[in-house]
Structure formats: structure tokens, C-alpha cells
Automatic annotation (TrEMBL):
<dbReference type="Pfam" id="PF12728">
    <property type="entry name" value="HTH_17"/>
</dbReference>
<dbReference type="InterPro" id="IPR041657">
    <property type="entry name" value="HTH_17"/>
</dbReference>
<keyword id="KW-0238">DNA-binding</keyword>
<dbReference type="GO" id="GO:0003677">
    <property type="term" value="F:DNA binding"/>
</dbReference>
<feature type="domain" description="Helix-turn-helix">
    <location>
        <begin position="41"/>
        <end position="90"/>
    </location>
</feature>
<protein>
    <submittedName>
        <fullName>DNA-binding protein</fullName>
    </submittedName>
</protein>
């Protein structure tokens, strides 16, 4: 597009508005992505480091179907989100939680 000298201020104003709109969209996208956990796929070695377990221990857990895993051909892949949920699912209740009135379990005497 060709602009005359008189049209330049209006064209710059329109460009400025569009750049501001793009900036707002990028900031909104960044905030949405930061709220969503990343779901990377890990190899067996990466998963062992992620979980602080040895590779043989991880293979044992896979063979016993104790841990979430994806298999493609001979390769194993682990989802970081699924591994985090798996670790959290093993949470033990505190004594206070066990003996709370809502559970109906009386404290030991």
C-alpha cells in the first residue's frame, strides 16, 4: 500500500492499534499457558530422574502395571502430568486426618 504524506499519521495510528491488540492476545495466551501444566513425554531414563528411581526399579513397576506408561513399539514413554498424579495418589493420611470426627474413627486411648 502506498500512503501520501497526509495519510501517514492515520496509518501509523491504525498500526499502533493493531500492535496493541496483538500484544494483548500474546499476553493472554501466555497467562493461559502458564496455568496449564506442561505434559511432556519422558523416556525411561528421564522418568527415572524425574521420580528419583533407578531404571531397573522403573522397569519393575512397569511390568507390574504399578505406574502409568505409554508404549510405542519397544519404547516406553511417561507423561509428566500422569507421573505427578501417580506420586500424589500415594499420599498417606496424617494421624489427625485419620482420627478426625468426620471419619468416625475414635482416637486410640
Amino acid at each position: 500500500m502506498k500512503y501520501t504524506f497526509e495519510e501517514l499519521p492515520q496509518a501509523i495510528s491504525v498500526l499502533h492499534e493493531k500492535v496493541d491488540c496483538i500484544k494483548d492476545l500474546l499476553l493472554e495466551n501466555r497467562s493461559q499457558n502458564s496455568q496449564r501444566p506442561r505434559d511432556d513425554l519422558l523416556t525411561i531414563r528421564q522418568a527415572s530422574k524425574f521420580l528419583s528411581l533407578s531404571v531397573p526399579t522403573l522397569y519393575t513397576k512397569v511390568s507390574r502395571k504399578e505406574i502409568p506408561v505409554n508404549k510405542r513399539g519397544k519404547r516406553l514413554y511417561f507423561s509428566t502430568v500422569e507421573l505427578s498424579e501417580w506420586v500424589r495418589s500415594g499420599r498417606k493420611k496424617t494421624t489427625e486426618e485419620i482420627y478426625s470426627p468426620t471419619n468416625g474413627v475414635p482416637p486410640p486411648t
